[in-house]
Write a structure and sequence with these properties.
154 residues, 36% strand, elongated, mainly beta, single chain, TATA-Binding Protein
Length: 154
């Protein structure tokens, strides 16, 4: 008889906060602004988040060893351009498909994930995020309501 082990969703439960950011800034511009206002050192990760080989989502990370926090800014939208293979007048046409890291939050541009133990930064962080020019709004997301939590495992 073969024994099968099944992991529950709670196995990967981490203590983290997640914030949604709505902004038309490019990701590198937002990272520059975040580093300036939050006194962080976010930088581009060596690899992007790859969801089932469909698309890549850029991620910027920083491990704050002094305060024992891990910061990550993740782009929510990825556009994959595919070229159509046809033998007619429109053989060089391309089509674009939009993918979202968290499909239930399609309107969100970026997610700021902070892995931390205990300390609550919500009020200070939201106040700081809203000071950034071209950040339309920012708000915390209740992690328990996210259906695709596995996409946030870094």
């Amino acid at each position: 008889m073969i024994t099968t082990y099944k992991f529950s969703d709670n196995f990967y439960e981490e203590d983290y906060s997640l914030f949604a950011i709505h902004s038309n800034l490019e990701d590198f511009s937002l990272v520059y602004a975040l580093n300036g206002i939050l006194n962080t050192r976010l930088k581009r990760a060596s690899s992007d988040i790859d969801i089932s080989n469909k698309s890549l989502f850029p991620i910027y990370e920083w491990k704050d060893t002094i305060n024992e926090r891990n910061w990550a800014l993740i782009v929510n939208t990825s556009i994959k351009e595919e070229y159509l293979k046809r033998n007619d007048l429109f053989s060089e046409d391309s089509t674009s498909t939009v993918y979202h890291l968290l499909p239930e939050f399609k309107e969100v541009d970026y997610f700021l994930k902070i892995e931390q133990e205990g300390e609550d930064l919500e009020d200070w962080l939201l106040e700081s995020l809203l000071k950034i020019a071209k950040v339309v709004t920012a708000y915390p997301i209740d992690v328990s309501t996210i259906k695709s939590k596995q996409n946030l495992i870094l």
